[in-house]
Specification:
Blueprint (H helix, E strand, L loop, with lengths): L5 H11 L12 H13 L6 E4 L11 E5 L14 E10 L2 E6 L7 E8 L2 E2 L6 E5 L2
Antiparallel strand pairs: 1-7, 2-3, 2-7, 3-4, 4-5, 5-6
Length: about 130
C-alpha cells in the first residue's frame, strides 16, 4: 500500500495499552509529537510529555521520533512528515523498537545508546508517559 499507516499503528498500540484520552491519537505522527512537546513546555498535568533526546535516558515504553523532511526540529509547531517507534526493550546499550509501515510491515530495529541516551542525531523527540 502507498497509504502511510505508521502513525495509525502507534495510535492503535497506545489505545490498546490503555492510554485512553491521555494520548493524542492521530493519522499523523507530528500531531501527537507536537501535543506531547506542548504538554512539557506548558508543564500541564497531561502525562504524555515530549523531551529532547539529550534530556533523558530511554526507558521501555518510550516513543522515539524523527522528522522525515528537512528543516524540522524540537520546536517546530506546524505539521510535518515524521516517524515514531515504540521502545520495547533496552539491553547492553541498545534499544529495541517496533514500528509500523517500515517497508510496508511491522518490524523491529535496534538503536545504539550512549549512557542510555540515543546516539543517532536524527531523532528529535522522546515521548514518555509520566502517569
Amino acid at each position: 500500500s502507498s497509504e502511510p499507516w505508521s502513525s495509525a499503528f502507534i495510535s492503535h498500540i497506545m489505545k490498546e495499552s490503555g492510554a485512553k484520552d491521555d494520548f493524542k491519537y492521530s493519522s499523523s505522527h507530528s500531531e501527537y509529537i507536537r501535543d506531547a512537546i506542548n504538554n512539557k513546555k506548558n508543564k500541564n498535568k497531561k502525562p504524555f510529555k515530549g523531551y529532547e533526546p539529550s534530556e533523558m535516558k530511554l526507558r521501555k515504553g518510550d516513543l522515539i521520533c524523527y522528522p522525515r523532511q528537512s528543516g524540522i526540529d524540537y520546536d517546530t509547531t506546524h505539521s510535518y512528515k515524521s516517524h515514531c517507534d515504540l521502545v520495547i526493550s533496552i539491553k547492553k546499550g541498545v534499544a529495541k523498537t517496533i514500528g509500523g509501515n517500515v517497508n510496508n510491515s511491522v518490524s523491529t530495529k535496534e538503536i545504539a545508546l550512549n549512557r542510555g541516551k540515543i546516539k543517532d542525531e536524527k531523532y528529535h523527540v522522546v515521548i514518555r508517559n509520566n502517569k
